[in-house]
Design brief:
The protein is α/β, with parallel strands linked by helices and 285 residues long. The protein has 11 helices and 10 strands.
Length: 285
């Protein structure tokens, strides 16, 4: 059967993608940001997944206020990088896994989570920046990727606890898939940042690191945090962190009583006007 063996968590800052695309990774400002992913990049080479489920949010690129699903799984065969107003990023197209994605959709909907199934979509920086940070410059991504979009743009946003339970449902769906696949699940977005208003530029180091601590050691309690706390403590865009709960809820210690290994943890400010957070958790077995 298929199995989820690891989860990866990372910010998906558009300026990081621009720095990568324009050859600025070695500049003094950006070098510590990209160096924070070096250990995880080596770990991924040694622990290559067969499929990645990447939880991200669309930034009004493919979806808009005229139509925005709460949860959407991409069930098509491939997805091109989106043009977000300055041309598409020069990165490979994403190759999907329609069979596993359709199976997840079927199983999760039967567990009372209403998913929107999307066969054609362009994917924006929310998905492509994490891929660049963790795989570097490549001609093609090293495995199929299932994009999984969450609405964290337009109120109402799903709660952390709802996302956590969705992660558990995704794990059950994956483990019922008959093919032997090593699956990783990624949660992206955040950490603390606000892009507008009187608090524009907000970064809360203490809160961010508390979030990372509890994500590792007390994820069930952390998932109960009300959405208003994210906005108050981490800024209006800090609400993206609810997506990390989907990846955390899918891990073995939550569902099967297994133990986890913290492969790598990284935190850095600033990157543009955002805090960068990154974490890799792996089944200890």
């Amino acid at each position: 059967m298929a199995r989820i063996t690891a989860s990866v968590y990372t910010s998906h800052i558009p300026a990081v993608g621009a720095a990568f695309d324009h050859g600025k990774t070695g500049e003094d400002y950006w070098k510590p940001v990209f160096a924070g992913y070096d250990k995880s990049k080596e770990w991924l080479k040694a622990n290559k997944p067969d499929v990645i489920i990447c939880v991200y949010n669309d930034h009004a690129t493919a979806f808009s206020l005229s139509m925005i699903p709460t949860f959407a799984i991409m069930t098509g065969p491939e997805y091109n990088p989106a043009d977000e107003g300055y041309g598409a990023r020069p990165v490979p197209k994403v190759i999907g896994h329609p069979e596993l994605a359709s199976h997840i959709a079927s199983e999760v909907i039967q567990q009372d989570f209403d998913l929107t199934m999307v066969n054609e979509i362009d994917v924006d920086h929310g998905l492509t920046v994490p891929l660049s940070c963790l795989f570097g410059e490549v001609k093609e991504w090293p495995c199929p990727i299932i994009p999984f979009a969450v609405n964290v743009v337009q109120h109402p946003v799903p709660s952390g606890e709802r996302c956590f339970r969705l992660g558990q449902a995704i794990r059950r769906a994956v483990t019922s898939y008959p093919e032997d696949l090593n699956v990783h699940i990624w949660g992206t977005g955040g950490m603390s940042h606000q892009l507008q208003g009187s608090r524009a530029g907000l970064i809360n180091r203490e809160w961010d690191n508390m979030f990372l601590d509890k994500l590792i050691d007390a994820p069930k309690d952390l998932a109960k945090m009300p959405n208003i706390d994210y906005v108050r403590e981490a800024g209006s865009e800090g609400i993206e962190l609810v997506m990390w709960h989907i990846a955390r809820g899918a891990m073995s210690d939550i569902n099967d009583g297994g133990k986890l290994k913290v492969v790598h943890r990284f935190y850095h400010v600033p990157a543009s006007n955002t805090a960068v957070g990154h974490l890799v958790l792996q089944d200890a077995a």
